[in-house]
Amino acid sequence: MKVLWKPHKGQQTKALSQPDSVFEIAFGGSRGGGKTSAGIAWLLKGTEDPGFTGLVIRRNHSDLRQWIDEARQIYVHAKLTGKPGVFEFPSGAKIYTGHLKDSDAYTQFQGWNITRLLIEELGQIPQEEYYLKLLSSVRSTCGVAPQVFCTMNPGNVGHQWIKRRWQIGLKEANKSFKDPVSNRKRIYIPATIDDNPSLQELDPDYVNYLDSLPEPLRSMWRMGDWDVFAGAYFAEWNPAYHIKEEKDARKLGFGNEVNHRYIGFDWGYSAPHCAIWIEVTPDNRVFVFDELYGKEKHPMEVGELIYKKNCQHGKNIEMTLGDPSCWIRNPMS
């Protein structure tokens, strides 16, 4: 029998061998980690069941065409029809393809019974809310357990919510954990180009290209580092250096009576609002020691929350600095 594809040992194999009890699988990290081919193979699991419905999502139609071309090399027994394409297998199982051209597209699959959902380049989805709308249709009416498989790289518009949802850097990678509300399990499985020997052999110059990139792109695209991302105001941010325990911060001058204390504020209603509490030492060392973050709250409610935090700290705030756009007249003012 001719073998059309087989996973590499290590992270690809780990991603494809997750049990049905893990509902959300996030696979990715650096560029060239073998994510796309793993996703294509993952969708095959269950296609012997006639009631199986798979769906693959990509952000753009052009990206979807490329995925279909690669999938056809593995789905050799399936018939491809329609635009966007539908793979139909001899059992009657189907894998649909779709793209998300606008925000309304996230609701187009409401009412579906999607057994397995593959989202390519999850980071291109800007808000977690859109992702949850897709997730609401993942349920099984056949003998195959429902499951979600997401591929992703750090640095896209969805960077922060993805990092938060999978607790990247907080939870142990390669180990599933339960969502405290839904009790469903999810797992983050990191992969770099070092986990993809096929690409290293076929295109060794691509590895050299990734190594040659300036920071923070090299950290993101070569190392799969989620603690940096392009577009951050402070590109030098390093949590290993910049996050301190309070006792260590005090050794550096935090908490001294001579320090100056400020609040920085950026208003938002639909977009998030943010307030940060800042302490500056005489030698201009800056500590951010608290924050308030949220959205869809009346300005008066936000003001009360800021006041309560000030009371908790019991520190004299010399000045509150706000983004000038805060004073643009709006219906909530």
Written description of the protein model:
With 333 residues, this protein is of the alpha/beta class. 26% of the residues lie in helices and 22% in strands. The strands form two sheets. The chain has a nine-stranded mixed beta sheet. The model has no long low-confidence stretch (mean pLDDT 87).
Which helices and strands, and how do they pair?
Elements: H1 11-16, E1 22-29, H2 35-44, E2 53-58, H3 61-72, E3 79-81, E4 86-88, E5 94-99, E6 116-119, H4 128-135, E7 147-152, H5 159-165, E8 177-178, E9 185-191, H6 197-202, H7 204-212, H8 217-221, H9 239-242, H10 246-251, E10 260-266, E11 273-280, E12 286-294, H11 299-313, E13 319-322
Named CATH topology of the largest domain: Rossmann fold
Number of domains: 2
Question: Briefly, what CATH class of the largest domain?
Answer: Alpha Beta
Task: Count helical runs.
Answer: 11
**Shape type:** elongated
- Give the strand order, joined by hyphens, for the main sheet: 3-4-5-2-6-7-1-9-8
Tell me the name of the CATH homologous superfamily of the largest domain. Answer: P-loop containing nucleotide triphosphate hydrolases
Percent helix: 25-40%
Report the sheet with the most strands, covering strand number, pairing sense and barrel closure: 9 strands, mixed
The name of the CATH architecture of the largest domain is 3-Layer(aba) Sandwich
Unreliable segments of 5+ consecutive residues: none
Cα separation of the termini: 70 Å
As a percent range, the share of strand residues is 15-25%
Structural class: alpha/beta
Q: What string, H for helix and E for strand, traces the elements in order?
A: HEHEHEEEEHEHEEHHHHHEEEHE
- Rounded mean pLDDT is 87
* Backbone CA Rg: 24 Å
Give the number of DSSP strands.
13
